[in-house]
Design goal:
Blueprint lengths: L2 E6 L6 H16 L2 E4 L11 H10 L3 E6 L3 E8 L3 E8 L2 H12 L4 E5 L17 E3 L9 H20 L1
Amino acid sequence: MKIPVFVSRPNLLTPDQEKVMDEIFAILDELALEPRTLGQSDYPTDFPLKEARAIIRHCSGGLVIGFAQEKAANVERYNRGDVPSKTYPTPWNHLEAGILFASHIPMLIWREPSITGGVFDNGVTGNFVHAFEPDFSRSDPRVRAVFSKWQAEISRNYYEH
């Protein structure tokens, strides 16, 4: 039996992002974790935020994947100076991470190097935020160690509740 984990990720991905997700789903499978994702494995019958909360309620872990979804050129940041361009994740990452945090579920956060802000800033959730290396692979021992540690937390959470 696999332990359900909520995966916060965009539904539309670039080919490179798809490759990373394939690697992540392979890791989850190897660790006996079942990914549950709004719009991928689970489809809403009610309004989406309520559905996300319902799915998360039945999960023992949460994985937030910050992939670039939008890019803005010449971003003006008040009292901080202009930025030539900035990439943004799906806003759903922040909403779903908030529900995971409020639910006290073990959370793992990964992001593309260009993604910052909100849940993707170190210290915001109490979790270290991991950045994808260009050659992200499930065979990398560092990647395996991070996912294995998270899986141990999930197992404790699953069997204690």
